[in-house]
Every structure is written in C-alpha cells, then in structure tokens.
Amino acid sequence: MKRYLILEDGSVFPGRSFGAPLTTTGEIVFTTGMTGYQETITDPSHNGQIIAFTNPQIGNVGINRADYESIKPTCKGVVVRSLDYHPHHHETTMSLDAFLKQEGIPGIEGVDTRALTRRIRTEGAMKASLVDAADEHAFDQLKALVMPKDQVQQVATTKPYPSPADGHRVVVIDLGLKHGLLKMLAHYNCNVTVLPYKTDAKKIFALAPDGVLLSNGPGNPHDIHGVAEMIQAVEGKIPVFAIGLGHELFAMANGAATYKMKFGHHGFNHPVREIATGRIDFTAQNHGYAVDPASINNDQLLVTHIETNDKTIEGLRHRLYPAFSVQFDPEGTPGPHDAIHLFDEFMEMIDAFNLQKQRRQV
User: Which residues are responsible for catalysis (predicted)?
Assistant: First the structure.
C-alpha cells in the first residue's frame, strides 16, 4: 500500500507500507549502522522517534530472541530503502515486518533514504509523520504536534528490581537503560539493583552500594528533575559512572550546560579519541543532546574524550571525586566493543575507593 513520510519543513518522501498500518508522528532521525537494526529499534533511547536507516537493505536476518534491548520497543516508526520480507538465519524467529506488526509500529519502505539523510543533515532533526495521504490536513496536524517531555518516564522502571550476583554491589539509575548494560554488568559479576530515576540519595546510601551507574536514555536532560541533585549528593561518597543521558546529567550536576545537536549521533561507527592517550575507539551512540564545551568548569571537570568528526565532548572525569562519564554506549549492543575497557576502569575505581576507605578506618 502506498504511504508517505512527510517532514515539518514540507518535504514528502513516497514509499510502501509495512509493519503496522497506522499513522504515526515523532522526531525523524537517521542511524548509520550497517547491522544491528533489532537492537536499534528496541533501544529505549529511540523512544518517540521515527528511525531512518541509512543502510540500504534492512531485515535480512529477521528478528531473534537474543538481540532485544528492551521488552517493548517504543520508537514511533521505521524508514528503510529496501526491506527483506523473507530473512534467512538459523536464529530467526520472525521477519522484521511481522515484528513491527506485532508491536504496533508502522514502517515505510522504498524511500530514498540517501536524500532523506541529506535533508536531515541540512535542516536538522525535525517532526515527521507516516501517513496515507500527504495533504494539507496531514501537514497541519504535524505542525501542531507538541513533542512530549516525559520520555524517560515513559520507558524507565517505576519500581526497584535486582539482578543478583556475588561481586561489586552496583546501583543502576534507570533513565531508559538497555539490556546490554545489564548483560555487561553480569559479565563483571556485579550484584545489581536497578532503581527508578526519581530515587533520592538517601535511598541509594541505604543500599550501601560500591558504585552508582547512571544509564543511557531518551530526551532532553533539562526535562529530568532531581537527578542532578542526587548526583551532587552521591559523588565523592560513592564512585559514579554515567553513560549517555546519564553523562549529560552528570555534567549538569557539576555546573555544565547542554544543547540540542542539529541531528545528533545515531549509529555505531562514531570514532572517539581519548585525549590523554590518543587512543581511537569506534563507538555506538544514540543521543540528540551534548555538553557545551564553553560551560565546563575546569576546576571540577576534565574533558577526557572527543568525537573526532565534530569535536563533540564524549567523556568527562571529575577532578576531585571518583566519578567519570561518557556520552557513547561502551557496552556496544549493537556495535563495536572497543570501549568495554571503561567497565574495567569502573571496577578498578571501586576497588581503589574501597581500599582507601578501609585504610581510613584502620
């Protein structure tokens, strides 16, 4: 069936419907990964977004049981150039088309995704709709759309839950975390307690954790209240590692500002340079906001990583406390595992902090 992707700047991209036969609206973004579409679609950081894949063929290995990054995907739509309706892989449980139908997510194929990507790069991320008719009424509805400001609330847990193990006790503040993050902490045998993002410092201290990890998540960090204050109360008393949206909130807690990027970083081929060593890691990224370099208080924060293409700040470390953050997703899922060593650094930071605390008690 004929469908249209319309953008708020008046652009129209015709195509064919697949997935759920629904009209949808959201922020249009493009992602540059060549594989990993299942992880991308189920990533909570894409909540409320219509995802355009720059890779021309999507769906060729179907959907499997292992690569979910959330139980329920919350993206608003999927845009592809060419869809494979008959995937061939030994782990395939269903096609991408069947999966999107099951989850109530509409898609459009046959779109000139190269032209679409150029449009987004030129004009920036914007509101978009998947519609049956690209008429004046559809554009009026799109322009009248007010984007939600409760995106984290839509995807984050509302109740604490454990992921038990015998290693370091780590509290994870859920801002929209991916399953891959929990898998990585399980790899390190961490005894994890996942807490809602509204949890205050007092409740965190009551659990006596060895470390606190702030997860990735969707939306504007300025729409999330209370987390920066919690970070201010915790840092210096418990080692902190912050990722993605958590990184932005960590920066804000220490006096920095954030801004909305023109079209963000979405994909897993983003080169990041560690300033101290010159090391280059290819990283998975999914964010539309970044930390403003001019706002960094150099007495408190040290910039540790930058994106080599646009010089975006990709990592920070506190100069006084055992606390650091990265804008990218070091666990990969999907994407390269170049930056997994950051979890080693977190574990080493916890060990060093605990040793120092024991010495003070002697």
Answer: 331
